[in-house]
TrEMBL record:
Stated name of the protein: 8-amino-7-ketopelargonate synthase
GO molecular function: 8-amino-7-oxononanoate synthase activity; pyridoxal phosphate binding
Family: Belongs to the class-II pyridoxal-phosphate-dependent aminotransferase family. BioF subfamily.
Subunit organization: Homodimer.
Cofactor(s) of this protein: pyridoxal 5'-phosphate
GO biological process assignments: biotin biosynthetic process
Reaction catalysis annotation: 6-carboxyhexanoyl-[ACP] + L-alanine + H(+) = (8S)-8-amino-7-oxononanoate + holo-[ACP] + CO2
Length: 395
């Protein structure tokens, strides 16, 4: 007898995913996330992490994490508005506000939580959310939680954005334009100066998710607002502490009144326990390191330019990337996976990215160059990619 507990409906869906080459499996690291690491028992060069600056296993961050544990314990013990808000959380927010050159900052448990909490809190019935069609899943989910109407504009298409703004100008209480700062799957940078200009022309608010630009773009990684010198003209700047900063967490930077409102209405802030002291301590150290020196971001960009130059010469299609995110676009999902598998056999880990993370038919491997890679490692990767790329008729 078939039972409801057999989950037959999920087995069927999984089989469909497998047939179309869209089924994902998770790999396991033995040890820290570094430029070279042991994945599924094999030593490989790691080209898939978001650990842009090599901070996730940095001695200074680890020391700060341990000190925070000694002082504050392993866990925060409550949600922040009850009794989980420790001095160390306040310190991180004050430091981030200074770093971002904004009035105030509120930290959430992750970038995902930050989007889920912020978008719904600052929009309501009668508003319109206008979102770039390639925005991150957490923005899409955040918008879904809002009672506002939603629409998308074509990716980085300013004519399409203006058309929407013009058509909707007097039909809504407020409009909010949301964009990724750097698009995570293609590595292109949002046209923020034009977005801000259009927003000002039509009286809309702006919201930038700098997850992939925090620690990457702008002076010492201050993000796209700093990169384009738009301080004071973007209403909500989201950052993550989980990527270049090397730990975990997310934050929104903006006006003090925005932060005061989110303390009262940001649901993940209200209903999910505060970040643990170890994570907060390590984040503080990372931001201090960025404020002390541009050494880390300089090294990241050097490596990215070096690697992309070499891949381009070989004839790989690296798309529209302007940042260390370097996609190699292959198209067919199964072929992208096969490319990744063969690279892994030869000692390079670069994970395939397929639908639904990217549109169907744009399967790719996404190379994440970091400050932690040596030229020697990058040369080795390029040689292996050339060999496998030729074998598979990709180049
Ligand atoms: C990764 C990412 C997030 C999620 O950040 P976490 O801190 O990992 O939850 C949010 N937005 C964008 C654009 C991202 O790339």
């Amino acid at each position: 007898m078939k039972s409801i507990h057999d989950m037959e409906f999920l087995k069927e869906k999984i089989n469909q995913l497998k047939e179309s080459g869209l089924y994902k499996e998770v790999v396991t690291l033995e040890g820290p996330n570094e430029s070279e690491c042991i994945i599924n028992g094999k030593k490989v060069i790691n080209l898939s992490s978001n650990n842009y600056l090599g901070f996730s296993n940095h001695p200074r961050l680890k020391k700060a994490a341990i000190e925070a544990v000694e002082k504050y314990g392993a866990g925060a013990g409550a949600v922040r508005p009850i009794v989980g808000n420790m001095r160390i959380h306040d310190e991180l927010e004050e430091l981030l506000a200074k770093f971002k050159r904004e009035e105030a900052v509120l930290v959430f448990q992750s970038g995902f939580n930050c989007n889920a909490g912020t978008i719904q809190a600052v929009t309501e019935d009668g508003d319109l959310i206008i979102s770039d069609e390639l925005n991150h899943a957490s923005i899409i989910d955040g918008a879904r939680l809002s009672k506002a109407k939603k629409t998308t504009f074509k990716h980085s298409d300013m004519e399409d954005l203006e058309r929407i703004l013009k058509e909707n100008k007097n039909k809504h209480n407020r409009m909010l334009i949301i964009t990724d700062g750097v698009f995570s799957m293609d590595g292109d940078i949002a046209k923020l100066p034009q977005i801000v200009e259009l927003a000002e022309k039509y009286g809309a608010m702006t919201y930038v998710d700098d997850a992939h630009s925090s620690g990457v773009l702008g002076e010492s990684g201050r993000g796209t607002v700093d990169y384009f010198d738009l301080h004071g003209r973007v209403d909500f700047t989201i950052g993550t502490l989980s990527k270049a900063i090397g730990v975990v967490g997310g934050y929104v930077a903006g006006k003090k009144v925005t932060i005061d409102w989110l303390i009262n209405r940001g649901r993940p802030f209200l209903f999910s326990t505060a970040l643990p002291p170890a994570a907060v301590g390590a984040c503080i150290e990372a931001i201090n390191m960025l404020m002390e020196s541009t050494e880390y971001t300089d090294r990241l960009w050097n490596n990215a330019k070096y690697f992309k130059g070499k891949l381009g010469k070989l004839g790989f299609n690296t798309g529209q990337s302007e940042t260390p995110i370097t996609p190699i676009i292959i198209g067919d999902e199964s072929k992208a996976k096969e490319f990744s598998n063969r690279l892994f056999e030869k000692g390079v880990f670069v994970s395939p990215i397929v639908f639904p993370t990217v549109p169907k038919g744009t399967g790719r491997v996404r190379c994440m160059v970091t400050a932690g890679h040596s030229y020697e490692q990058l040369d080795k990767v390029v040689n292996i990619m050339e060999e496998v790329g030729k074998e598979m008729n990709i180049i």
